[in-house]
Structure formats: C-alpha cells, structure tokens
C-alpha cells in the first residue's frame, strides 16, 4: 500500500471531545483497511484565513497529521466521510514521497571544480548551445569589409 499523509483541521474543543473526534477519524481509516503509522499533534493555532464550513465561521483550528497506509480505492470515500463530519474543518491528503538516496563521495567533492564530473557535464551542455564560428578564409577572425 502507498503511504499518505492526511492533514486534518478540527474545530477548537475541549480535550475530551477532541479525543473522541481523533478516535472516530482514526477508526474510519482502520475500517477502510488502512494502517496508521504515526499521529502527530501540531497544536492549536490561528488559521491563515477565515473559513466557513457547515454554516459556521472558524478562525482557529487544532492541526493533526496522520501518516498512514491506505488502499487507493478507498481514498475518495474516506475524504467524503471526513467532509460530512461537523468537527472537521478541513482535510487534505498528500502522497508521501519516498526519500531518494544521493551517492556522494568525499574524494569527488574535494577535487577542483573543473575536474568534477557534474561540472564537466554542465560545460558540455553549454558547448552544445554555442553557435558555430564562420571561417572567412582571410586569416582574420572577423569580416574586414563590414561597415
């Protein structure tokens, strides 16, 4: 399964109510066959702009980040369920990128720039875009009869 991050903004409420909302939203992921890897509380803060959901205006929200594995076929129904929940102000799902490993050796980095492979590749790319020089067969590198 693919790893996703779900950012949830809940309305500001007491901890006991917030706890039940978190259990309900996490239970929806588990019911759809997902696995929750991490749940992170990002705190209660002001929203960047005023948002109106379910007929109520919100200026503050409690931010939570779920990291989970969900089957792609159930994402739409999960987001639809969260959209109908009155305690959820906003929800956004992101696909988590797998970290790429860049091979780097110290010997290559210590070389002077003209001898590095990546710099030589850049120079070669720049030379491809150079215009060819015209040969005038006069021994000069310019056209002498130009005004």
TrEMBL record:
GO terms for cellular component: mitochondrial small ribosomal subunit. InterPro entries: Ribosomal_bS6, Ribosomal_bS6_sf, Transl_elong_EF1B/ribsomal_bS6. Gene3D superfamilies: 3.30.70.60. One of its GO terms (biological process) is translation. GO terms for molecular function: small ribosomal subunit rRNA binding; structural constituent of ribosome. PANTHER family: MITOCHONDRIAL 28S RIBOSOMAL PROTEIN S6, SMALL RIBOSOMAL SUBUNIT PROTEIN BS6M. Belongs to the bacterial ribosomal protein bS6 family. This is Small ribosomal subunit protein bS6m.
